[in-house]
Every structure is written in C-alpha cells, then in structure tokens.
Design a protein that fits this description.
Rossmann fold; alpha/beta; 3 domains; two-stranded antiparallel sheet; 7% strand; 345 residues; 5-stranded parallel beta sheet
Length: 345
C-alpha cells in the first residue's frame, strides 16, 4: 500500500514524530499504512528492503510530505537531502517548525518563507487544512479541536526534552579521532596484559610450592618490576641472617673474604663467633680466612636469591644500568657496596 502522508523527521526526534502521527490518526482519521514514518512500528521499512530506495519510493508516491524541522533535522545531511527531493518533486510539502527553531533561521538557511509551528493552535489548524485538501478528507472540526488541544499539552513537554545536536570543529574532531585511535591501541595492549594475567592465574592454581609461585610471578613482570621483586627476595633472605653473615656474603660475592677484625675488636669477634656457632660461618684455622657455610639452609636461601638477582642484572644490564645509576647514584653492580646497601642491606 502506497502511503498518503510521508513524515520526514530526524531519528532522534522519534517521540515527536510518534505523537504527531497519533494526532493524524485521532484528529484526521489518517491511520495504518496511509502514513509513512521511518521510526515507528508498522509504518517503517519492511525487512529485506533497501533503506534509501524504500525511503525514495515512499517519498515520491505520497500525496503530502510533512517536514518536522527540529535542530536535529537541520543538522542531518540525510534529512536535508529529503527536503531537496521534496522541493523538486512534490507540490504538497508542509514545513512544520519545532521550537527552538525560529522562522528567521528557515528563511536564511533553507529559503523557506512559510512554516507552521507545531505547538501553535492556529498553526495546527492550517496544517490540518493543508493535509485535508490533497487527501480530500471531510472536516470534523469538533473532533480535531479536542485532539489538537491534547496534542499541544503533550508536545510542549516533548519539545523541552529534545536532545540538541552536538557540533564540533574540525580541529576538535581530529583531536577526538586521535584520542580514539590511542584508546584503541591501549585497549588492545591491556587485553594482551589481561590474557597474560589469566594464564598466570591458571598456572598458579596448578602450583603448590611457594618458590615456584614466586618464580612464575616474577617471570610475568616487566623488567623494572622483576628487578625490584628480585631485590626484595634477596633483601628478605639476607635479613634472616646475622649482620656479619650478610657482610661475609657481600665480600665473597665481590671475590674476597670477610676481613678478620683486630684482636681488640671484641664485639666484632663476638658476632663472628656467634655466626660460627650457628654454623653459618667457618674459621678452619687461625691462619685461614673466614668462610661462609653455604650448606646452612638460611645461608643457601640467601645465596640463591642473590644469584637470581645477579643473573637477571647480567642479562638486562644494557637496558637497566643507566636508569639505576641515574636514579640512585650507584653502579649497576652487586660488588658496588653502595648498590648492596641500597638494594640488599
């Protein structure tokens, strides 16, 4: 069935178009397939049809075209194209002005010299007359008057609820476009990180040994975080030892033995004797150097943590040494006492 009335409107103005369609039905008895309105059920485009072609067919076959001229309509290139098509091919085109759009704007931008306000009593009467003539409808002024009054009350509320179009400058558009592209890249990166973490969680669930869990967590960190985690492990392991044993570990890591204190340094000798009693240090003979007993479990644990850190530092020296040296003022070297004090103890 070819429509008699074509309502041209912006998609965002669906509620206004729907209310006006109800007015046509209740006030002028124009119902069903007689009205084409692209956003309303039963009066829109059937499934499988080409949208633009169907719009063209409905527009050209209709006897009356109603233009709901809102801010959103005037901002829509598609809607403005419909206006052009109407002016070329149709005689009965009725421009309906929806506030806050004013007459002056229509004259300046579209050369429309006459339009009726959608919420004006006399304007609605003129619209009704302009629709009745080409459709050859009988006038029922009493019915129209009642329905028109109810419509004006409802339409004022819908006019106030309109969502205005958003306009941005070309510079703002390009800025937003770049931000969108940047966000898309970050989302992809974060998606990759999330996937890695999910793999980590699944692998952690399969582990029971705390050392294995720790190693796996470190393996999934970036370089700086791996470095900090390995330093933390070494620092905690050394902290479980008497201070003198930690010093002995530093000296042996630097390729030398812990210096023997002088005979008068009784407190230092007491610390060494205590560590020897704890089986963490060894002094085979008075003429022999002080040695670390790596078979002691706590000492062995500290040695392993220091070795892990040293291996990491050797593998990542090119990427990290400048950062550490610039930030902390120490060389990226475990034999540097400043580095040891900063990161180990």
């Amino acid at each position: 069935m070819k429509p008699d009335v074509f309502i041209s409107h912006a998609v965002t103005d669906k509620d206004i178009a729907e209310e006006f369609t109800r007015l046509l039905a209740s006030g002028l008895n124009i119902t069903g397939g007689s009205v084409f309105c692209s956003s309303l059920p039963g009066r829109t485009i059937p499934g499988g049809f080409n949208f633009v072609e169907h719009i063209k067919d409905a527009l050209h076959s209709s006897k009356v075209v109603l233009l709901l001229l809102t801010e959103n309509y005037l901002a829509s290139q598609f809607c403005l194209a419909e206006i052009g098509a109407c002016w070329v091919s149709k005689e009965n085109v009725i421009p309906i002005l929806v506030p806050p759009v004013e007459y002056e704007r229509l004259k300046a931008t579209l050369s429309i010299t006459q339009a009726w306000k959608i919420n004006d009593d006399d304007g609605l009467n003129s619209i009704a007359d302009d629709i009745r003539k080409p459709l050859k409808l009988d006038a029922d002024h009493a019915q129209w008057g009642v329905e028109k009054k109810a419509f004006i009350k409802k339409i004022d509320s819908l006019i106030n609820d309109q969502i205005p179009p958003v306009f941005i400058s070309p510079d703002e558009y390009e800025k937003c476009k770049k931000q969108l592209e940047y966000c898309a890249v970050k989302i992809e990166e974060l998606g990759g990180e999330l996937q890695k973490k999910q793999v980590l969680i699944e692998n952690l669930k399969k582990l029971k040994d705390k050392d294995e869990v720790n190693e796996l967590e470190i393996a999934h960190m970036d370089e700086l975080k791996q470095f900090e985690a390995l330093c933390q492990n070494a620092r905690l392991a050394v902290a479980t030892l008497p201070y003198v044993v930690g010093e002995a570990l530093y000296h042996e890591n630097a390729g030398r033995n812990l210096p023997k204190p002088r005979a008068i340094e009784k407190e230092a000798w007491a610390d060494i004797s205590n560590a020897i009693d704890l089986k963490m240090l060894e002094l085979p003979d008075d003429d022999e150097p002080i040695e670390v007993n790596y078979e002691h479990p706590k000492v062995n644990n500290a040695y392993d943590a220091i070795s892990d850190l040293q291996t990491f530092m050797r593998e990542h020296e090119d990427n990290m040494h400048k950062y550490i040296e610039d930030k902390y003022g120490v060389t990226f070297d475990l034999t540097d006492l400043g580095f040891w004090r900063q990161f180990i103890g």
